[in-house]
Amino acid sequence: MSSTVHRPLRADARRNREKILAAAAAAFATSGLDAQVEDIARGAGLGVGTVYRHFPTKETLVSALAQEHFEQLADTLEAAVVEEGDGWEIFSAAIWRAATAAAGDVAWCEIIAGDPGAVAAARGQERVAGATATLIARAQAAGAMREDATVEDVRTMMCGFGHIAAGQRAGAPLDWKRYLAIALDGLRAR
Q1: How far apart are alpha carbons 9 and 121 in whole angstroms?
Q2: Residues near 62 by Cβ (< 8 Å), separated by ≥ 6?
Q3: Higher-confidence residue: 150 or 60?
Q4: Structural domain includes residue 3
Q5: Three-state DSSP class for residue 16
Q6: Does residue 94 sit in the same domain as residue 123?
Q7: How confident is residue 118, by pLDDT bands cut at 50, 70 and 90?
Q8: What is the pLDDT of residue 2?
């Protein structure tokens, strides 16, 4: 039985990885998951081979970005968990903050809309689910959210948001803000 030892990256390799991730985030934000590795390498000021040394496939690069996005989303939701006040208002504001941050990033919208490879690899999802469950429970305890609302309902709502926002950025006559307002209204207690 062999064990894999993960050594820390050398400083130059770490900088290259950070450049690649930044360039990939920029390329994917504007072109979606169709962005080309060659464009990412050019944006990072590196060769394509360097990109592939860090990320052997485009899918591993997308998964690394998805992981970063889910970690940021988890940070947003966990910050809401510690807020004091009206459970519904805190939940709703956290969802709006997350959606507003995502709306300008085509790839992130595609990822939350359900890119299965990227979503499956994202570790931050567990944190997102935990914080979402806490926010839901608080809003339900206050009588402000439907008793049957679940984390899966919120995940489905955000996947729909991802489709709408990605379509809107592609020129479709859709309004992600209207969609999100209606979806959130559907979670409110009557």
Answers
A1: 21
A2: 28, 33, 107, 111, 115, 117, 118
A3: 150
A4: no
A5: helix
A6: yes
A7: low
A8: 46
DSSP, res 94? H
User: pTM of this prediction?
Assistant: 0.78
Q: Which structural domain, as residue segments, surrounds residue 14?
A: 10-56
CB neighbours (10 Å) of residue 99?
23
Asked whether residue 29 falls in the same domain as residue 110, the answer is no
**Strand-pair partners of 145:** 188
> At 27, which CATH number?
1.10.10
The residue among 129 and 124 whose pLDDT is bigger is 129
In a domain, 1, yes or no: no
Amino acid at the residue 177: K
d(CA 161, CA 23): 25
Q: How far, rounded to the nearest angstrom, does the alpha carbon of residue 155 sit from its chain's CA centroid?
A: 11
Report which listed range, 11-20, 121-130, 159-168, is most confident. Answer: 11-20
- 129 domain residue, yes or no: yes
Residue 73 and residue 51 in one domain: no
Q: What is the mean pLDDT of residues 87-105?
A: 90
Q: Which amino acid is residue 40, in one-letter code?
A: I
Q: What is the DSSP letter of 32?
A: G
Q: What is the DSSP string of 151-188?
A: HHHHHHHHHHHHHHHHHHHTT-S--HHHHHHHHHHHHB
Does 5 map to a domain? no
